[in-house]
Specification:
Blueprint (H helix, E strand, L loop, with lengths): L1 H7 L178 E6 L2 E6 L12 E5 L5 E2 L2
Antiparallel strand pairs: 1-2, 1-3, 3-4
Length: 226
């Protein structure tokens, strides 16, 4: 009735009546707002458009630490699982079990395979390179299966301490740090005060109490006594 009276009293003048819109950032949840935290920060739990932040919205949250629920390391705004940012908003990495499809061979981060671990000599190398008999991930001319440093080019295969790890990737090139590699061991002999014990299998290890001696017998007759 009041509106009608106002219109009638305007003697033919046009009157425009507009709905009052919502104001994002005023701290009050209004029409079309999923949230309103009273600020215009785009990268917290409530975006600058007053929508609840979710993985996949294209905005990487910066208000959480990796230990907190909802943390995002990335957010590329799509639902592709095999690019640089997964649909869980986690950065893609070799060993996550997802083979990236957004890169070409030769580009940094390219994966020929990804078996969910960072172990070489199991068909997929520790850098997600194919371990076919001729595969050579580091391009040094030495096949990965026999390369003593498969992740770093070292054509000379220098191994000053003779521990089986090339000097170029050995953190202790002057100290023998023997490693037991799955699939390359025929047997392990652990020798202690109680005599000799023989174990068969892949990737087995043996430990001796302090003061005893452990001898590893590796394929090919190579023998090392730490």
């Amino acid at each position: 009735m009041m509106l009608a009276g106002l219109i009638a009293g305007c003697k033919g003048e046009q009157v425009v009546v507009r709905d009052q819109g919502s104001t994002c950032g005023n701290g009050t949840i209004e029409t079309d707002e999923g949230c309103d935290d009273g600020n215009t920060v785009a990268t917290d739990g409530c975006t600058s458009a007053c929508q609840v932040a979710i993985c996949g919205d294209g905005i990487t949250r910066s208000d959480l630490t990796p230990e907190q629920d909802g943390y995002e390391a990335c957010d590329d705004g799509n639902d592709v699982q095999t690019d640089a940012c997964t649909i869980q908003c986690v950065l893609a990495a070799c060993g996550d079990g997802l083979v990236r499809t957004d890169l070409s061979e030769g580009e940094a981060g390219y994966e020929a395979c990804d078996d969910g671990n960072r172990i070489s000599n199991d068909g997929c190398s520790s850098t997600c390179g194919s371990e076919s008999p001729d595969a050579d991930a580091d391009g040094d001319g030495i096949a990965d299966l026999t390369d003593n440093c498969p992740d770093r080019a070292n054509a000379d295969q220098a191994d000053g301490d003779g521990d089986g790890t090339g000097d170029d990737c050995d953190p202790n090139p002057d100290r023998k740090d023997f490693k037991l590699r799955a699939g390359r061991i025929n047997a392990i002999n652990a020798v202690g005060e109680g005599g000799e014990r023989r174990q068969q299998g892949r990737g087995l290890g043996a430990a001796s109490p302090q003061g005893e001696t452990t001898r590893y017998r590796l394929k090919g007759g190579f023998r090392a006594t730490p």
